[in-house]
Amino acid sequence: MIEVNRQGEVWVFAEQEDGRLNDVVLELLGKARELGDQLGVSVAAVLPGQKVRDLCSPLIQHGADKVYLVQDDRLGHYQTGPYARVLCELVQKYRPQIVLYGATALGRDLAPRVASAMRAGMTADCTDLEIQDVTDPRTKTLHEKLLLQIRPAFGGNIIATIVNYDQWPQMATVREGVMPLLPPDPSRNGEIVEEKVELDETLLALRLIERHVEPRKVNLKGARVIVAGGGGVGSKADFRLIHDLASAIGGAVGASRAAVDSGYIGKEHQIGQTGTTVRPALYIAAGISGAVQHRAGMEESAKIIAINTDPEAPIFSVAHYGIVGDLKKVIPMMIKALKERR
After folding, report:
1. What pTM was estimated for this model as a whole?
2. Burial readout 78-87 (b: 16 or more C-beta within 10 A, e: otherwise)
């Protein structure tokens, strides 16, 4: 644990792979900029890697005042040990008050290792972050401008707000897609701070022999139109209707957890609390009841159309347009109308 530093910066771990930043990094920089402005402190990105200097510019354009750049050939591929060493040494040197990571596979591996080494608290899978004055109920002490780390709990049935009074830096991983990706500002200027971190061989216990990258089958976060099916579709064969409508309308195929658990479609299509968070221009939910876990991942869509046989289904509470009817009849009618319009 490092000493509480009220003037410490707000940091974002700049996760990259093969010289390409993960989208969640740029999403987090927008939120970090907001938090930094509220606290009156600078925003910085921490960028470890091999030949990644070119990534400093987009980080600055998306809100970073500084980029702590650590370049080393041994950081070319992610390993927990050396990356954790980089973060820990920089945290001890600069004493930030907030450190944010994307809740990716890499972020979920790295963040707890750093938090443990720093003896700091950490909240996983946050869906929102706020700055607020908080009174410690144990000591009645008022703590000004603490980070509220907000995340679903108990299967999404409640929202938990977690506060870290004194185990600093305040750390959190944030789910992909929950923070809006703000447009870059090419006029922004920032400082690149080059750092050197000693990496001994004990941290490099693994040797990469072969690397296999599975291509992404669907890009739900980037889709402007999504047609999603739920357990109400009824079968894997009937889920073909969802694919047909998505094809007719030029959209991506999504699904609720019920549809995935039933084997109608792969998990990479899952939308919701335990899947992907999306904000398309149009979201069509067919046979989805609309449990809070699913709504958390799609309710900020610009336009939502719900198709369900139950007029009391919760999905209608967030839908802009609702169709009460059997999707096996409604969807073929929609596809026919689309083809005739063309």
Report:
1. 0.81
2. bbbebbbbbb
